[in-house]
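re the bet — no i am not wrong, look at it urself. input seq straight from the record:
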Amino acid sequence: MTKILITAAGSYGDVAPYTGLGARLRDAGHEVALATHDTYAPLVQAAGLEFRRLPADPRTRRPGQARPAAPGSKRALMRQAAAFVKELGGGIADAAHEDTGLLLLSATTAPLGHHLAEALDIPSLDLPLVPGAPTGDFAPVVSGGRSLGRWGNRAAGRLSLRIIDRLYADATRDLRSRLGLPPATPRTVRRRTEAAGRPVLHGFSEVLVPRPADWRTGLDVVGNWWPWHAPDAQLPDIVEDFLAAGPPPVFLGFGSMAGGDGERLSTLAAAALHRAEVRGILQSGWAGLTTRHTPEHADLLTIGDVPHALLFPRMSAVVHHCGAGTTAAGLRAGVPTVPVPVTADQPFWAARLASLGAATAPVPFADLSADNAVARLADAVTQAVTSPARRDHATEAARRLAAEDGAGEVIKAIARLGV
């Protein structure tokens, strides 16, 4: 048995997949703790894992943005992100115990966790949910999803790593000092890690992102880790009653995006679904979607947190922001998607779904402020629910996803470490 500490920081989609992975590791005989924000303590504990606190909870520390930041605010966002990372660094050091035998690190926590592993003299595994290493196959996932050509993609990928190094510079200096380690820059530690050829297991599917051939040995794509939910979990009665009252509805939600913009988005969603002549389920999320602002005749239901694994297979289509986890959940359910990407890696996943044939063309979130937003969203929903080809592509993708076992591959990798 190994005492494993998983560290994950960010929004629900950045954390929830590690609850399912942690539960599988626990079932395999390991003792597992998951360090994350207080917001997710109930989720961690419900999965049977030990909860350890990380500071800088984005739900309480940083309100969600209604819209992507304007280009002129990038410097301010970098300062804000650096402050978030610096606060996180102290929490990472506190989360590890002397008997910790292995660190499993998310993309956000890995640049900090590597120093902790060095100080404790224990192995670590990077387990990112998105591709991060430079490749000629595609540009960095946060660059908007548009290819710059093979040379340009690789150059942009290297630049992206240098930006991340800058982001973690202050946190690295403080953390290494606290841990009693000699000074070293994030770039030095990153290059040292790369030169050692340490394995990195990516928690997404090759159905969406085939492993780039120009990646070094050890960078592997293993398949998704799914958020934990109780084996006997069921949808709430109010949801079951709504599903039984008519044809399969369309799901619409923005996850941790669009905070504070709920009234406008609720009204827009209701109008678009009504125009498309479909029933709808709105997931409130950070935006606060609600039927309070919608016409009484609208055939809509508002819900809170419900496992996508239970809900999505009952939908005729799903409309969402295309976070990595929600993208995979929709594909796993075999239902078509209407992508409404907001920011960060979401345009990348939206483009991947569309290229797979399982989604309509993306409707960028910023376009929902346009005068034709209702008509455009309604048209996309109609395409999603009426196209047999899109459903066939989604069904085939779901079949392939069902054959993967991402958590099982992590268990094998840990066995190879011999810890």
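see?? The longest helix spans residues 74-95. told u. also The chain has 17 helices and twelve strands. so pay up
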